[in-house]
Amino acid sequence: MEFFHEIVFWPDLVRRSFYDMDWVLNFLNNKLKDTNPTTEFTNWASFSYTFDPLLYPNTSGWNNSPRQQAGYIPQKVEHNVAQGSYVHAPGAKSNIWTLPYPAAEVSSNPKLLTQPVSYNF
Amino acid sequence: MDDYEELFRTQTNNNKEVLFGIQFLPGVVEYGLGNPLNGALSYDLSMTENIGGSSALFISYDLLKWLVDDKALSRLRGNVCIPGQKYSYIGTHLPAGSWTVPSGRTKCNIKKFVVGGIKDTDGIAVQGNSGHVPALMRLAEVYLMYTEAAIGMGTQTSDGKALEYANAYANVHSNSTRRILCLIPAFLLMTF
Predict the structure, then answer these.
(1) Looking at per-residue confidence, does B121 or A85 come out higher?
(2) φ and ψ of B20, to 5 deg
(3) Is the complex ipTM higher than 0.85?
(4) Lower CB density within 10 Å: C or N end of chain A?
């Protein structure tokens, strides 16, 4: 419960552990940091910046921003599910931490894997 | 609400913009019944009349950059302590009658949910409980949803109501009387 409150993605780690335990253990042991493309968001440099318009007016307030640091990897969300689909993660290697639909549900409703459609009201 | 920033004051609890919010109990000091964020997030003790402060929680680089680039000043200073920004409704107990974000820290503290001290809140805030009702859903969100629905799968809309709502949203968050230019110190403006 403590982990659940302190780390917002703890449930995602538990879920992922059911089908990708190696990745989860490596992540928790800090072995993926800065080196693995799936964990760029943990890059420590991305947390460092200085923004002070009074001290640095010539740069609109910015100084020592991550993008000025060598080795900074910009944070990004990689949308690597199939084109036209916004609703599911394809499997264990997906970089989107959403819950894949159980096969039984997809079998009974194949439209779960298709693109959402807008409707008029 | 005419100004987004006003959402983070106890005096505006449950205002017409708030569809529903967490109803913390003003003045109660028992943990769990009050809103503890005033002391947990505030820049220093002077900001809250010594009822909490000196937070080490800061906004991330990516979110700050988005707020700055967005150029909506009310949303920026309503959420983040930007050095040089003056808050007339915070620090009213101080000799200056207001509180200005000092210069010198590397990262920017969070301003959202910091309501100030006892005098700033007309006696509502106590240690451990700001008495502030945080909005969980605002009218602005409904406006945006309406606009999104009007656009549908397209890229634009001529729906008059949607345009009216989108403009209302933009005006509240940018607060045209205090544009982003305020971030540039006055002395610098005078030299150019």
Answers:
(1) B121
(2) -160, 150
(3) no
(4) C
